[in-house]
């Protein structure tokens, strides 16, 4: 099948924070995807338009690792991250790469398998208005916990408290001393910290953790571009408080807990117990801008780009 395929490529090595100028949209008429050296991939949902595999047929909807392009050549294998989407479930396709995909699986697995919340415990979530943080906070509330989140704008703080049900939230940009800020919001200490930020926020959270506190490290957005200094945690405090710190990755929990996760979260969505926040752009040419927004804090909830 010969097609004219548009795809997003990197112009040059990116130093520091990415900008739209670091990317370009190219076009290629071919039977295959772009050269592997140019191909950028992420988790996406798409429709099978042609197949030589007995596992997939034209018209199937699939979710998995696809390219930033109109067409992706996919070769099934035991290690490939791809699965069929149950369109009959009645959810928007976007949910299968967000709340019912990697974002939701990371939030669910990180909170319930790593942190193991107990009713009444105190939970802090950083980057709480993002695709994962917004779900972690809601899941923790459903587990009976007291939940505080932080975000970078007043609008996001209001969203956390007014729509997503967080007990409290604050704008970290307005807090010159993060350790003192967390002491105010958690006078009796933090039991669980879901970290999406790293850096000084992680240091401040650890300083306020209770004995046997648990930390799920999901991301370090403050360090990705080299702008912020790496976290320097007080390791003596970690030892004395017997704090557990564990890095997490969505694929740690897939496929062994996916069926459980999908069933539970699907029910919560249908019952109105979980609110889904999406931030959608349109068109392949807007993929670079959408990607850049992840580093500037402009996105709210799951950032998506609709290609067709």
UniProtKB/TrEMBL annotation:
Pfam families: ADH_N_2 (PF16884), ADH_zinc_N (PF00107). The keyword Transmembrane helix does not apply. Keywords: Oxidoreductase. Homodimer. Coiled coil: none annotated. InterPro entries: ADH-like_C (IPR013149), ADH_N_2 (IPR041694), ER (IPR020843), GroES-like_sf (IPR011032), MDR_fam (IPR045010), NAD(P)-bd_dom_sf (IPR036291). Residues 16-305 form the Enoyl reductase (ER) domain. This is Enoyl reductase (ER) domain-containing protein. One of its GO terms (molecular function) is oxidoreductase activity, acting on the CH-CH group of donors, NAD or NADP as acceptor. The lineage of its organism: Eukaryota, Viridiplantae, Streptophyta, Embryophyta, Tracheophyta. It comes from Digitaria exilis.
């Amino acid at each position: 099948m010969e097609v004219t395929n548009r795809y997003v490529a990197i112009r040059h090595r990116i130093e520091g924070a990415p900008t739209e100028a670091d990317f370009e949209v190219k076009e290629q008429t071919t039977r295959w995807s772009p050269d592997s050296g140019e191909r950028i991939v992420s988790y996406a949902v798409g429709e099978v338009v042609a197949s030589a595999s007995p596992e997939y047929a034209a018209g199937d909807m699939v979710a998995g690792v696809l390219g930033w392009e109109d067409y992706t050549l996919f070769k099934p294998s035991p290690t490939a991250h791809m699965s069929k989407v149950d369109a009959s479930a009645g959810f928007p396709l976007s949910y299968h790469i967000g709340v019912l995909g990697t974002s939701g699986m990371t939030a669910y697995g990180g909170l319930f398998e790593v942190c193991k919340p107990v009713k009444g415990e105190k939970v802090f979530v950083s980057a709480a208005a993002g695709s994962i943080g917004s779900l972690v906070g809601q899941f923790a509330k459903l587990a009976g916990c007291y939940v505080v989140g932080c975000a970078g704008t007043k609008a996001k703080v209001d969203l956390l408290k007014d729509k997503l049900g967080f007990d409290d939230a604050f704008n970290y940009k307005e807090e010159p001393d993060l350790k003192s800020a967390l002491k105010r919001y958690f006078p009796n200490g933090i039991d669980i910290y879901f970290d999406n930020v790293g850096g000084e926020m992680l240091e401040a959270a650890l300083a306020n953790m209770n004995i046997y506190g648990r930390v799920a490290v999901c991301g370090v957005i403050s360090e990705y571009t080299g702008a912020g200094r790496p976290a320097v945690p007080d390791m003596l405090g970690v030892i004395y408080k017997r704090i557990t710190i564990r890095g997490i990755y969505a694929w740690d929990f897939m496929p062994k807990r996916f069926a459980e996760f999908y069933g539970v979260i699907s029910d919560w969505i249908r019952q109105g117990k979980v609110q889904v926040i999406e931030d959608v752009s349109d068109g392949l040419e807007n993929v670079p801008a959408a990607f850049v927004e992840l580093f500037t804090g402009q996105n709210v909830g799951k950032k998506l780009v609709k290609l067709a």
